[in-house]
Description:
- Helices cover 24% and strands 27% of the residues.
- The chain is α+β, with helices and mostly antiparallel strands.
Amino acid sequence: MAKDYYGILGVKRDSTADEIKRAYRRLAREFHPDINPDPSAHEKFKEINAAYEVLSDPRKREMVDLGGDPLAPNGGGAGGPAGGAFVGFQDIMDAFFGTQSARGPRPRVRPGADAILRLDLDLHETAFGVEAPIQVDTAVICTTCQGAGTAAGTHPQTCEICQGRGEVQSVQRTFLGQVVSARPCSACQGFGTTIPHPCATCGGDGRVRTRRSLTVKIPSGVEDGMRIRLAQQGEVGPGGGPPGDLYVEIHERPHDVYSRKDDDLHCRVTVPMTAAALGTRLTIKTLDGEETVDVKAGTQPTSTLRIRGKGVPHLRGAGRGDLYVHLDVRTPTRLEPEQERLLREFARSRGEEVAELSKQGGFFSRMRDAFNGHA
């Protein structure tokens, strides 16, 4: 009579594969000999593994549903009651750690990697956009074999070692039964096929490295550090696989006049003290040309003038940022005697007392003389 493998795992006959796996994982942890010292746990653990081996295999599960026993001596199974359960190593790992690995040969044709290129631009180029020529060193499809990797008139052949499976298995007998472990075939590197006659140009890889010239269109308003994506201009994949993308990273060179913050520009202009007091008119060189601005009389140090719409165009949407002119008021460090006299008269006319300093004396000299006289 066939064993009740569903009953061993405690699941219903219509249970899903995930429900069967969860039940197996729970029971395997409970009865694992390293966890459960009960002598009967060893036999129970082997029975659980055998049940999971059967119910996790669609073909064997179908045989059970039809009343057969794939592990019986006449059932064509890998083992019987006397031989122990035949357990896949990956199934045990899946049960305990929830891991899964793709089995079978891996494809020779795989997608290519993305590439990145740095592009240095001036402020004027990032502000208004530019079509910049670039050179890219990437892998491209081999024109000799068109990505096949084989010499003309030849084709890949099925690996004689793994018979096209891409992996080889080894069987070990343990207290759990026969444990099967699989590893990539070393003869074909897991591809399942070999290339006896590789292409002389690419050596069987299906791609070669070369330098290409492209033109990238930089939109107006880009900022330092932004990346522009050029679809399918990256590395061609192994075996002539689809290329990845190329990312052009923008680096804005420092400007000798302007500093940039988002879409606004900032610059500093020095004006004489008299110009700040009396007012004047300045000619500012903007990105678009010269612009005249008025400095009002009585302008104080650290004042800022704002010129609307003379900054960097917005990357998304219409309009532009502003230009901010920061004023540094310059005080003269040396005065001619006549200039000093006029300046003092100006101070007296405003009622501003200005202490006179001289080599012969001054405020501190008078303080010293008063102190000495007191002494």
